[in-house]
Amino acid sequence: MDFKIGDTVAVLDDVIKGKVVEIHQNKIVIESSDGFTFDFLPKELVVIRESQFELSKYSDINNESLMEKIAESSAKKNAPKFKSNLKPDDIPAMEVDLHIHQLTDSTRGLDNYDMLNLQIETAKHKLEFAIRNRIPKIVFIHGVGAGVLKTELDFLFKNYHVDFYAASYKKYGLGATEVYIYQNPKN
């Protein structure tokens, strides 16, 4: 495989990714996102042209169950809508579990950065879904851990017209954030 300086590469038998910084006869030097340099044989590396997240968007295009879901959702859009007299506080919150094992079958080949991006992109899509569908509350279950995901979620929520706070300790413990979405009245 031909490598060029600046290519993003991954190591085949390890979870190291980086950019090619030097090319020698039988050695490729890469720099990881942490700033460390590593030497590898060309046969130990592969060039990354698409991110794992971008590829996963197209993995089930011809999937039969996906086609059924699309047909169901279009049928639901055409179904009559019923008005509810419930107040927003009476409606149960939509729950989204962001634990990585709930989002993907395998984390093989994903580094911490890829997993965090998958979790944040999922949260973003679910939040935008709730906004589009006028769902007033959504609970993101993120767990406790080192707090990296919670910090990134807080940063994400600041970009939307929402309030967010710790969800019910009794129900979720310390590892969940509840988001209240401000709704504009229908015109």
Uncertain segments are none
* Shape by Cα distribution: elongated
Overall tally of structural domains: 2
What's the order of the H and E elements? Answer: EEEEEHHEHHEHEHE
Overall mean pLDDT: 81
Strand content: 15-25%
The beta-strand count equals: 9
> End-to-end distance, in Å?
59 Å
Largest sheet geometry? 5 strands, antiparallel
User: At CATH's second level, what is the architecture of the largest domain?
Assistant: 2-Layer Sandwich
Q: Residue share in helices?
A: 25-40%
CATH class of the largest domain: Alpha Beta
- Which strand order spans the largest sheet, edge to edge or round the barrel? 4-3-2-1-5
The name of the CATH topology of the largest domain is: Ribosomal Protein S8, Chain: A, domain 1
Helix count, DSSP H or I runs of 4 or more residues: 6
Structural category is alpha+beta
> How large, in whole angstroms, is the Cα Rg?
22 Å
